[in-house]
Amino acid sequence: MAVALLHRRSCRRAHLFRQHRSRPHPSRPLPLPRPPVAEVAQAPVQARHAAAIAVSGETYTVQDGDTLSKIADKLGIHGGWQHLADANADTISNPNLVFVGQVLQLPA
Fold it and tell me: Is the pLDDT assigned to residue 39 strictly greater than 50?
C-alpha cells in the first residue's frame, strides 16, 4: 500500500512538473523568433601588390620550422619577408603559410 501511494505521488509530481515547465514564467522572457540577418557585402580582398619583382633564378625549398621571415633572414634577402612573398605571389596566397617542400623563387 505504501509503495503504491509513493508511486502515485511521484507520478503526480512529474505530471505537475511537465505542466509547469511548458507554461512561460512571468520572470522568464518569451522566446521570440530572431529576425533574418542581412548579409553584409564584403569588400573584395586586395591581392598583395606584386610590382614585377625580379627573381634571381635561384630557388629555396622550405624546410620544417621555416617561415618567410626566417628564410629572408637566413638568406639575407634585401626587403625581408615581404620581398620574398612578393616574388612568390603566384604560389603564396597567405604569407603566414608556407609548407615543407614548397619551392620558393628567390628575388634578385
Answer: yes
Q: Does a structural domain hold residue 14?
A: no
Residue 105 reports pLDDT greater than 70:
yes
Element (H, E) at 6: helix 2-22
Q: Which of 86, 82, 75, 7 is nearest to 51 (CA)?
A: 86
Domain that holds residue 87: 55-107
Our count of domains for the chain comes to 1
Cα of first residue to Cα of last residue in the chain, in angstroms, is: 97
The CATH code of the domain that includes 69 is: 3.10.350.10
Dist. CA 74–CA 78, nearest whole Å: 11
Contact (CB, 8 A) for 55 and 103 = no
Structural domain includes residue 89: yes
Pairing relationship of beta strands 55-61 and 103-107 according to DSSP bridges: antiparallel
Q: 77 lies in a domain?
A: yes
| pLDDT tens column, 45-73 | 555 554 567 777 899 999 999 999 999 99
